[in-house]
From TrEMBL:
Keywords: Coiled coil. This is Coenzyme PQQ synthesis protein D (PqqD). It holds the Pfam family PqqD. Residues 267-294 form a coiled coil. It comes from the Bacteria. It comes from Cognatiyoonia koreensis. The keyword Zinc does not apply.
Length: 419
């Protein structure tokens, strides 16, 4: 085993990011890092022990690297070179968002069609990365296959930024893909293992390039659907899909909620049901090339709250629930609503919470401090057909859930201020 004295430490500083990545006897990763991040400029230098790195990658031998991210919630993991760099990219995503506080973020793929971005939200096993690769093979520029920083410009339009990271697809490719695509995927592979291949085609947009968002396509892949079909979908359904399927823990959840709401309100909206990625690409070309509607500005969004130190979030330190006290909303939350759907992101940026009709009523009551008994009195008057016992049980359970989600807190009776 290597002792500390024998370890060669290399610090990588990426342009525009504050925290470096630290390599411990892991300079062998540099060619893979360059291949996967072809348009990321970085420098290497001796490590500064006073600087906290965003990620530490340590060579433990036999092409295995121990990866520790700065986020204390993330345990150290051991990966081969390809997956170690993938782990590092998670840290870079955090750093990139932190370095650009005006950015929002979406977990999606994004491809340029006719000068606008078409987004494919993340859904597990939806095939977004493979469909993105098929479109890249056909010459469309790829901005991302995983996460997209977005920003609203001075004219109110939402724009996406290319992340400059090579596309990652699962290995092996299914045999039903065309021979030309299979050959193209092999030619554009820059690094691979048994699980994944990173592709870096000429159509990969450089880091930082920006384009307006024109459409969002929710992917619904099925093995039993013969033809690819594109159908319209409502704003509310897109918002629900983005929030429930698309959550990516690389940034404050309030920013994800704001971005989801903005895209749902301003972009063209479709659902693509398909089984073959190449047939899906055919359908997208027929429907979107030369037919995109006029860009719409994003509805006014609330100012993003200041982010709270995630290290202060500890459910073990929550005050004991006391149903005799009054409660008030915790400040700096983010909320949006479309139709009957209402979502709130807590101030800590940890989660996005969907309000059902009952919890939304209680949430509205809590605009001002209120006790359980006061809430029950209001609800009993509004819903006389429901028993007082049932209202009391439901209201108390909702208040407890709000506390656990860091949405409310007790009122300090002595000072009149929240604790």
């Amino acid at each position: 085993m290597l002792t500390e004295a024998h370890v060669t430490q290399t610090s990588i500083t990426f342009d525009g990011l504050k925290a470096p990545v630290l390599l411990n006897d892991a300079d062998s990763l540099l060619p893979t890092i360059r291949a996967v991040l072809p348009s990321w400029n970085f420098s290497t230098h001796c490590a500064d022990p006073a600087v906290v790195p965003s990620a530490v990658l340590t060579n433990v031998g036999n092409n295995i690297y121990r990866c520790q991210l700065r986020d204390p919630a993330e345990p150290a993991r051991r990966w081969d070179a390809v997956n170690a760099v993938c782990e590092m990219i998670v840290a870079l995503a955090w750093e990139q968002i932190e370095a650009n506080p005006s950015w929002l973020c979406l977990h999606c793929a994004a491809v340029e069609i006719d000068g606008r971005l078409v987004l494919f939200p993340n859904r597990r096993r939806s095939g977004k990365s493979t469909l993105t690769a098929v479109l890249a093979h056909r010459g469309y520029r790829v901005f991302t296959d995983d996460f997209l920083p977005v920003q609203i410009d001075s004219n109110g339009y939402m724009n996406g930024f290319a992340n400059g990271i090579a596309m990652r697809i699962r290995q092996p490719l299914p045999a039903e893909f065309s021979e030309t695509f299979q050959e193209w995927a092999i030619r554009t592979t820059v690094t691979a293992n048994k699980q994944y291949a990173y592709l870096s085609p000429k159509t990969l947009a450089a880091r930082g390039e920006t384009l307006p968002i024109g459409a969002i396509v929710v992917l619904d892949r099925t093995d039993t659907y013969d033809l690819a079909e594109l159908s319209p979908v409502s704003e509310a359904d897109v918002l629900d899909d983005l929030v429930t399927q698309n959550f990516a823990r690389i940034t404050h959840s309030g920013r994800i909620l704001q971005a989801s709401y903005g895209v749902a309100r301003s972009a063209q909206r479709f659902r693509l049901t398909y089984s073959s990625a190449e047939a899906a690409a055919d359908q997208l070309e027929r429907a979107l090339v030369g037919t995109q509607a006029q860009l719409l500005p994003v509805p006014e969004l609330h100012e993003m709250p200041a982010e709270v130190d995630l290290g202060t979030v500890d459910t073990a330190l929550l005050p004991a629930f006391d149903n005799s006290t009054s409660f008030h909303r915790v400040p700096h939350f983010t909320e949006v609503g479309l139709g009957d759907q209402h979502y709130v992101a807590d101030a800590y940026g940890v989660g996005i919470h969907r309000m059902n009709p009952g919890s939304r009523v209680i949430w509205t009551i809590l605009e001002e401090p209120a006790s359980l008994s006061e809430i029950c009195s209001i609800l009993s008057a509004a819903f006389p057909e429901t028993s007082v016992e049932q209202i009391s049980q439901d209201a108390e359970a909702t208040l407890q859930q709000f506390m656990e989600c860091h949405l409310i807190q007790p009122v300090d009776r002595n000072s009149g201020m929240t604790e």
